[in-house]
Amino acid sequence: MCLCDRAVALYFIDKLALRAGHEKDTDEEADTVGCCSLRVEHITLHDTLDGQEHVVEFDFLGKDSVRYYNCVPVVPQVYKNLKHFVKHKEPGDDLFDRLS
Q: Which of 23, 21, 33 is nearest to 62 (CA)?
């Protein structure tokens, strides 16, 4: 399943121009994230929203603590993979837990 994680992360980086992000010590720095450090709590999946199908709602603090909020329709395979990624996870869990 690592290949699917990587594919969706690269899709977000390419199509949405999200920065890659990385792990860091959250005790010493603001809780900012990039694509690879997104947690389940940072996205909401909508089967349909405002007449569009397969919409991902992003809400997180990005670089320099700037809020990133965006609702984006994605291709069906990406949406299907995201549904699988969030299944059985808590809000604070990493979205892409198989990336290294």
A: 33
Query: Both tokens of residue 37?
Result: 């450090």
Q: What is the mean pLDDT of residues 20-46?
A: 83
Element at 5 (helix H, strand E): helix 2-16
> pLDDT tens digit string along 39-87?
999 999 999 999 999 999 999 999 889 999 999 999 999 999 999 999 9
